[in-house]
Amino acid sequence: MALEMESMASAIGVSVPVLRFLLCFVATIPVSFTHRFVQSPFGKHLYAALSGAFLSYLSFGFSSNLLFLVPMLLGYLSMVLFRPYCGFLTFLLGFGYLIGWLNVTQEKTFEFGNYFVCEEKKGFNVQVEIRIYFLLEKKFYRENAEFDLQCAPVCCVCGICHVYYMSGDAWKEGGIDATGALMVLTLKVISCAMSYNDGLLKEEELREAQKKNRLIELPSFIEYVGFCLCCGSHFAGPVFEMKDYLEWTERKGIWAPTEKGPAPSPFGATIQALLQATVCMALYLYLIPHFNISGLNGPAYQEWGFWKRLSYQYMSGFTARWKYYFIWSISEAAVIISGLGFSGWTDTSPSKPKWDRAKNVDVLGVEFAKSSVQLPLVWNIQVSTWLRHYVYDRLVQKGKKPGFFQLLATQTTSAVWHLSCTALLLYTVVANRKDNLIFSYYSIFNFASHCKLKRTVKTPKGLYPGYIIFFVQSALMIAGSRVLYRWQQAIPSNMNVVKNLLVFISFAYTVLVLNYSAVGFMVLTLQETLALYGSVYYIGTIAPIVLILLGNMIKPAKPSRSKARKEQ
User: Fold this and answer.
1) Is 418 a catalytic residue?
2) If residue 47 lies in a helix (H) or strand (E), which one and from where to where?
3) Quick one: which of 12, 42, 59, 370 has the most CB atoms within 10 Å?
4) Range of the domain at 137
5) Phi then psi for 316, rounded to 5 degrees?
6) Over the stretch 538-554, which tens digit does the pLDDT of each residue have?
7) How far is CA 296 from the centre of its chain?
8) Which molecular function GO terms apply here (predicted)?
């Protein structure tokens, strides 16, 4: 079996861990389909919990379920014990656990297992001694562990109850870990707690989304676990609400039988999602040999002129997006075929079923977006919706309009979420072999080396500034787009040429800044990100800043139609 996995992985050009993950990920489709045949609500919750845990075990190992159990328990206990504050507590604890930002108060048993899945190198047997230092009450505590490892390099991150390595480096080395799934799970746990918290508030104090999603009663623990792991949605999303999950399971709300008949068939929408996934993967496999990270760092790139560099950055960002389109299309198919993806009926005659509850991306909407403001509505849609409902809207004071602060805070939250693989505690890893290699890792508070390297070793630094830079860039990009939109709206209707010119400029601006910003998301490190931005003279940073400054100086009059409405 192992040989078959190796040969299959080699044939498609991925590592065995990544292949195993992809197989389990695709398996969420038949697993979700089988969910339709479970009759009782309790059985559905139990099936969702067990099938999700089993897929996690196959993908990441047994320890992954223990990793997931901690934030789930933190969220549920917050709801049980501290309902008036459960939303705030779960938000802090969930993100704190996600980035390993909690103190260690007792000796821990570290399970290495499948978290140490790196690019395998035959015949490389390393005896590794781990010395992990915890910063606790201004003292360092040390724990030692020894184990055999058949892979290299060693990638590990100090978490709360486990040591697991960073997702960014895992993917770079051909590995896979459970951090991405933990990221999605964290959002689901937080949304459940905050919706339960909203159940205490008066209806007139709530926004429409809060009214729709709030929970009056505490879900049972089996309902809660089923919600967290249902349809394998914790692998890559989509994020959905506990209220919707409960109504779907109990055949209430839009899933209740109506005069229109039983719930519509999901097979047509599922096939459409699978076809989209196939096209996306085919295009990605065709483009990736020509436009990739290696090309951005290659010597040929340095010899090119400005326009060719900018074009290559554009194509690299364009190419990278298709793997996300593929993953989200598969997860969409899994949720649709379970029935949970159903979101109601159209207003047309005859009415048709809508299946956009699981929709995470509008491919054409992203690639042909006329404005950066539209991107959150068509890219990673469910996470964008989560950020709007649980961060952006809740930062806006009643009676006031949102501004740049709310936008920047939301983008910063998104950046922190993507930095889940960051280690906030200091630790060092020492690998003992003939040449006595030393791998040094640092917390974000201490980048000074604690040991001398006898040989240069490329190691992860624990913090990926590329993520932060990307999301700050996104905030600037959207703010710049809003300036262009205001100018466009101020153009009189009889000046169509000028208005269309501004539409084109907005489209070109979006394409330019989006793909420029995506470079940071791909290369991750500060040095590489700044070097690549500098190679095109920081054009994608300067352009939005100039627009924002011009927007403050050139403030167009409001459209005449707005004045007419006020007079009415």
Assistant:
1) yes
2) helix 41-60
3) 59
4) 2-250
5) -65, -45
6) 999 999 999 999 998 88
7) 24
8) acyltransferase activity
Backbone angles phi, psi at 128, to 5 degrees: -115, 130
Whole-number Å distance between alpha carbons of 108 and 162:
8
Shortest CA distance to 329 belongs to which of 392, 405, 384, 275?
Answer: 275
pLDDT at 460 over 90: no
Task: Please provide the DSSP assignment of 411-440 as one string.
Answer: HHHHHHHHTTT---S--EEEEESTT--EEE
With CA atoms as reference, report the closest residue to 196 among 219, 214, 208: 214
Burial profile 333-349: b = 16 or more Cβ within 10 angstroms, e = fewer:
bbbbbbbbbbeeeeeee
Give me the number of domains the chain comprises: 3
Is the overall model pTM greater than 0.85, yes or no? no
Residues 96 and 181 in one domain: yes
Q: Give per-residue pLDDT as tens, 209-257.
A: 999 999 999 999 999 999 999 988 889 889 999 999 999 999 999 998 8
Residue 389 lies in a domain: yes
- pLDDT category, 516, cuts 50, 70, 90? very high
| Same-domain check for residues 236 and 277 | no
The single-letter code of the amino acid at 481 is: S
Q: Looking at residues 484-501, what average pLDDT do you find?
A: 88
Burial of 377: CB neighbours in 10 Å, binned 0-12, 13-18, 19+? middle
- Is the same domain home to 286 and 362? yes
Helix (H) / strand (E) containing 133 = strand 126-136
Higher-confidence residue: 157 or 534? 534
Looking at residue 164, its pLDDT comes to: 32
Same domain, 153 and 182: yes
The DSSP bridge pattern shows strands 157-158 and 163-164 to be antiparallel
Q: Does residue 248 contact residue 72 with C-beta atoms inside 8 Å?
A: no
Statement: residue 144 has pLDDT above 70:
no
The H-or-E segment that residue 148 falls in is: strand 139-149
Catalytic annotation, pick one of 162, 290, 418, 450: 418
